[in-house]
């Protein structure tokens, strides 16, 4: 994630990660940290030698920043992993507060609801910082295994990928396109969405499958009202086969209960009925408003609403079935004999590293 900051160096200590970089690359580092799942927050930190005079002087400088930004109250929070420092944590707080009040007019101490907190950490050297920024939290990406996201060009699936990454899942993606029925611009849009999502997932491998022969077979031979559900069943089968090859433990979709015809509980049962791997649906109980808010937060919304039709939308029947029967769905699916076409699509995949 720090590839754009060539001079950055990462150092780890107990309870802390330190990123050292040239000042001109600090914005690149902050942008990366704002998308790093698994950290509670970060702050720009000043450092000095472990002398009382230098520490107090830096505390005063941090207090000046608080006043310049409009703050009126502050609090000192200190901790010492190096117990050889001559002041206790409590004494250090008192001395720092005293130094600030002596040097700066207009600032007051408020230990309950301060405008900002000046943190002092005494480690191998002294670290002083304020104005910390909240991180995304969650679990470190990769700590909860690997999943394969069915990525469309819409709003929902990038949000689903982000939410599963926030629970520690390393997310890869698969996309189905139907050129020439869908424009190449639609595929390029999905690649951009994969890059946006991948910024939170420590990168994404996007597998692109040409599903035109599969969709053509369904359109020619299946009852029109069943076409979307049967297409979703074929996508699920292809995605599961791909997941097994890349050692993913589950599929991830952006489905939300009853949002569209293919996402009623009956039709969800149909589309997942032939699978052995679990299907994770992190948006299943969310409304569109909540999904859009997350899409905007991760920077995917403007790209998601670009007017390029995906293959599911293109082949949507006028009157789709709403409550499909699993046995009937599987009988229709078997009659289409899609396995060879699916295997052909998998064999000809395009891989884009995002």
UniProtKB/TrEMBL annotation:
Its EC number is 2.8.1.4. PROSITE patterns: THUMP. The keyword Chaperone does not apply. One of its GO terms (molecular function) is tRNA-uracil-4 sulfurtransferase activity. Pathway: Cofactor biosynthesis; thiamine diphosphate biosynthesis. It is found in: Cytoplasm. The keyword Cytoplasm applies. Catalyzes the ATP-dependent transfer of a sulfur to tRNA to produce 4-thiouridine in position 8 of tRNAs, which functions as a near-UV photosensor. Also catalyzes the transfer of sulfur to the sulfur carrier protein ThiS, forming ThiS-thiocarboxylate. This is a step in the synthesis of thiazole, in the thiamine biosynthesis pathway. The sulfur is donated as persulfide by IscS. This is Probable tRNA sulfurtransferase.
